[in-house]
Automatic annotation (TrEMBL):
The keyword Magnesium applies. InterPro entries: GSPS_pre-ATP-grasp-like_dom. Pfam families: GSP_synth. GO terms for molecular function: ATP binding; glutathionylspermidine amidase activity; glutathionylspermidine synthase activity; metal ion binding. This is Bifunctional glutathionylspermidine amidase/glutathionylspermidine synthase. Residues 3-131 form the Glutathionylspermidine synthase pre-ATP-grasp-like domain. Keywords: ATP-binding, Hydrolase, Ligase, Magnesium, Metal-binding, Nucleotide-binding. The keyword Transport does not apply. Signal peptide: none annotated. Its EC number is 3.5.1.78, 6.3.1.8.
Length: 135
């Protein structure tokens, strides 16, 4: 069981994503996100994510051909969802990899890699080795 500070509930709430997209459409650091499946999402494929979901639970990945690419279960099935442009993680050495960085006191704190055989990174996903070589 993981206990997160109360303040993490707000930035972890995905309901902000459609609002950000409406304020900054086509921004290079944002994916098209809406509270309903729109025509653009159907064309690109989309992820269905619970608004307050965590750890990769209850996510559906749907291709532009309406094919279900991946699906996870969990305790957030009854929540309202957001629909986000499909952006699959890169596959390296047989695993889909997510780069995670974090800050401490406003400064760079570290980086880790999460990897999984499936397209969705979950709480059970592996933490992969990371080597930084100074050139």
């Amino acid at each position: 069981c993981v206990f997160a500070p109360l303040w993490t509930g707000s930035p972890g709430n995905k309901a902000i994503l459609p609002i950000l997209w409406s304020l900054f459409p086509h921004h290079r650091y944002l994916l098209d996100t809406d509270f309903t499946v729109n025509d653009e999402l159907v064309q690109t494929g989309y992820a269905v994510k619970p608004i307050a979901g965590r750890c990769g639970s209850n996510i559906d990945l749907v291709s532009h051909q309406e094919e279900l690419l991946d699906k996870t279960s969990g305790k957030f099935a009854t929540q309202k969802n957001i629909y986000q442009q499909l952006w699959c993680l890169p596959k390296v050495a047989g695993k889909y990899i997510q780069v995670c960085t974090f800050t401490v006191g406003g400064n760079y704190g570290g980086t880790c890699l999460r990897g999984d055989d499936s397209l969705v990174i979950k709480k059970e996903s592996d933490i992969e080795p990371l080597i930084v070589i100074k050139a």
